[in-house]
DNA sequence: CTACATCCTCTAGCGGCTAGAGGTTCAAGA
DNA sequence: TCTTGAACCTCTAGCCGCTAGAGGATGTAG
């Protein structure tokens, strides 16, 4: 019925030390313990930890997850705040994509270097002098 | 003729503690010192630090920059290795863009939540159960 | 009852900085 | 020449989100 930390780890794909870390920073509640002080988890903890893992995979910061968990535990409130957190995160993600796309274009230009001696290498030049490249300002 | 660490900082937009940190980890050579132990930089150091800063902005890791600097200091070698480092980095950047784009789409679906009570909120559901969403595996 | 996989706590480390304490140096102005 | 005070110095500790390892205890299958 109850799970060891290792079983919880296997079911959620979250590493054992990470589970303990989440408990330490208060993302996961302290589970019950056996007489020998080993942690035993309830099946619901799988769901909560999956929530955390998925949110982390999506790039939510721990602090944001903490907020989401707080809101999620209060089923009668409007989900406007949840919406706001997600929207803020979406904006960050879009910005990051824009910056990486500019970067990708710049790297692609750089990679067109044609293997002469270092002293002629465009990559080195571009890195040494920002003005040399068509850099999209950020 | 020589620059204080503050002037170097202003010219390169790299913060003073970061310059000292780069020296500590061996990215920047130890500069000359005044009698009172204050650092004095040569104009060439501006160029080297700009190289480092730009490479960092482009997302190169310190270790990669160390390699690039080593290669750049050896003007007679083929720049094939430089090319390889950049290409590997380009691949990473492309992968990151792909993952973020999938994430963006997922977040956009989530944001279409229509502000009812938390218990109906799609965002919470999606986070709680990975299977609910059309997630691009990575 | 034994073996041994898994668990426990605790501490330290990673990358890439950033911040602060507490003290010293340097250059400009009086 | 002296005095300010901004900028410098070193050192230590902290940030995030884990990850690794030491050294020892527990739990379960055979």
What share of residues of chain A is helical?
Answer: 55-70%
Main beta-sheet annotation of chain A:
2 strands, antiparallel
The H/E string of chain A reads HHEEHHHH
Kindly provide the radius of gyration of chain A, computed on alpha-carbon positions and rounded to a whole number of angstroms.
Answer: 23 Å
Number of strands of chain A: 2
Share in β-strands of chain A: under 5%
Summarize model confidence as the mean pLDDT of chain A.
80
Largest interface: A-B, 51 and 51 residues
CATH topology of the largest domain in chain A: Multidrug-efflux Transporter Regulator, Chain: A, Domain 2
Keywords (chains A, B): DNA-binding, Transcription, Transcription regulation
GO molecular function (chains A, B): DNA binding; DNA-binding transcription factor activity
Protein name (chains A, B): DNA-binding transcriptional regulator, MerR family
Pfam families (chains A, B): MerR, MerR-DNA-bind
Question: Can you lay out the helices and strands and say which pair or pack?
Answer:
The structure is a homodimer of 138-residue chains.
Chain A: H1 5-12, H2 16-24, E1 32-33, E2 39-40, H3 43-57, H4 62-72, H5 80-111, H6 122-128
Antiparallel strand pairs in A: 1-2
Chain A binds a DNA duplex (30 and 30 nucleotides) through helix 2.
